[in-house]
């Protein structure tokens, strides 16, 4: 039985976090190790059931149901092969990262992180998080956000005008013509 990567002392015991899905859990920190291949098989076989009733890990006790679960910040060693697990962002909004061993295809989730998938509406997407397209998209989202923040710092109150205009432009059927006209106007302005 592999040991818990987070508290390192406890062995991991089989559990079913979701109906029919087998994972291993640490009795001490309640973190969970999930084989992505097992998850994929489970996902495929339960795709229909999943559509009917959402992957519902029990909602947490009232009061702190909105609290973000604690994320392990330090690097974890894979319980299966003792290599360092890679941290993967889940979405641009969530600070929590999932630890993943590319060699064993095991995902480590700290306690409460499975429920995060529900909150972020990502139930069923767990496997996609660890793909290059998903991670690349996160990076480009982040760059776009930084670009917007940068623009805001330069434009100040003009930002909302620019946003309104951009929204109007991209929705316009003749946007290509309008854009060409604007570009010509701006060039002419530069030459003055
Ligand atoms: Zn533990
Ligand atoms: Zn491993």
Please explain how this structure is put together.
This protein has 192 residues and is of the alpha+beta class. It has two domains: 12-130, no CATH class; 136-191, no CATH class. Helix content is 42%, strand content 16%. It has seven helices and six strands; from the N terminus they run E-E-E-H-H-E-E-E-H-H-H-H-H. It has helices at 36-45, 47-52, 113-119, 126-129, 132-155, 159-171, 175-191; strands at residues 12-18, 21-26, 32-35, 86-89, 97-101, 106-109. It has a six-stranded antiparallel beta sheet. It binds zinc ion (2 copies).
How many structural domains are formed by the residues? 2
Spatial ordering of strands, largest sheet: 1-2-3-6-5-4
Number of strands: 6
- Please provide the ordered H/E string of secondary-structure elements: EEEHHEEEHHHHH
Portion of residues in helices?
Answer: 40-55%
Mean pLDDT, as a whole number?
Answer: 85
Point out poorly predicted stretches.
55-65
- Estimate what percentage of residues fall within beta strands: 15-25%
Q: Cofactors and ligands present?
A: zinc ion
């Amino acid at each position: 039985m592999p040991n818990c990567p987070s508290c390192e002392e406890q062995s991991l015991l089989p559990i079913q976090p979701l109906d029919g899905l087998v994972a291993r859990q640490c009795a001490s920190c309640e973190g969970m190790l999930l084989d992505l291949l097992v998850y994929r098989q489970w996902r495929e076989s339960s795709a229909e059931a999943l559509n009917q009733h959402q992957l519902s890990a029990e909602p947490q006790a009232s009061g702190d149901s909105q609290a973000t679960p604690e994320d392990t910040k330090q690097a974890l060693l894979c319980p299966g092969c003792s290599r360092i697990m890679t941290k993967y962002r889940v979405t641009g909004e969530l600070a929590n990262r999932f630890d993943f061993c590319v060699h064993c295809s095991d995902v480590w989730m700290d306690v409460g992180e499975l429920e995060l998938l529900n909150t972020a509406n990502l139930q069923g997407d767990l496997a996609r998080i660890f793909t290059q397209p998903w991670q690349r998209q996160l990076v480009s989202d982040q760059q776009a956000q930084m670009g917007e923040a940068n623009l805001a710092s330069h434009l100040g109150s003009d930002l909302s005008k620019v946003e309104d205009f951009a929204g109007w432009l991209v929705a316009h059927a003749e946007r290509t013509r309008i854009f060409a006209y604007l570009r010509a106007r701006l060039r002419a302005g530069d030459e003055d």
